[in-house]
Amino acid sequence: MHMHPRVFLINNSMSEKEFIAGIDYSLCGPAICISDMNEPFDFYSCEFFFLTNIKKYAKKIKQNITGETFLDYNQEIQRYETIADWAVDKVVGCSRIGLEGYAYNATGKIFHIAENTGVLKYKLYQKSLPVDVFTPSVIKKFATGKGNASKEKMYESFLQETGVPLNSFLGMSRQKTEPQKIKSPVSDIVDSYYICKFLRYEIIV
Question: Which of 63, 57, 31 is nearest to 45 (CA)?
Fold first, then answer.
């Protein structure tokens, strides 16, 4: 029988566990945070997965953070499907899934973003996986107190809360004279963490 890898990470047992997931979904840097509802919520009790185009990040960064490379694709719809299949494989077995909704002031490939997310939602629906969608401003306010917080402010809150220097883990530490710039996959992991934490808060409340 196929066992999901996250089950082995947490106590090597499937018994009496209820997993939830937070997904920061995108075309270029999706990330997933999985948490056991029966464990206190903190960084080290969660497990993280992300996709990247940067080979040096496609590895196990820490015991609970795993990066993987995007699969090759020949057309856009195949690209959407491979990303969605990756995400669904990670969250199968979760009782609830939190997903960040669209930023309505977004620019760029907004139709590609919508189509990509639509494929994921459809595949989650096919698996009967319940999805809660939260607006980006709600997640940002939950994390920082401000609904328009920057990636840098999100990371600042994450670092203050967890004490986990993701930038250092990924070799992105800045020089002391340089301003802090937060990039993928650090920003993606941080967002997935707060999406998952907010979902947990919604369930408990």
Answer: 63
Please compute, for residue 86, the number of CA atoms within 13 A of its CA located in the half-sphere on the CB side. Answer: 27
| pLDDT attached to residue 102 | 81
Give the residue among 157, 172, 43 at the shortest CA–CA distance from 149: 157
Contact 51, 83 (CB under 8 A): yes
Q: What is the reported pTM?
A: 0.89
Structure-block tokens of residue 27: 């075309």
The token duo for 87 is: 């995400």
Residues 18, 36: contact at Cβ < 8 Å? yes
pLDDT digit string (tens) for 69-119? 999 999 999 999 999 999 999 999 999 999 998 876 666 678 888 999 999
- One DSSP character per residue, 36-77 reads ETTS--SGGGSEEEEEES-GGGSSEEETTEEEEEPPP-SSHH
Q: Write out the H or E segment, with its range, that includes residue 8.
A: helix 5-9
Amino acid 14: pLDDT: 43
* Residue partners of 52: CB distance under 8 A and separation at least 6: 29, 58, 67, 68, 69, 70, 184, 185
Which amino acid makes up residue 3? M
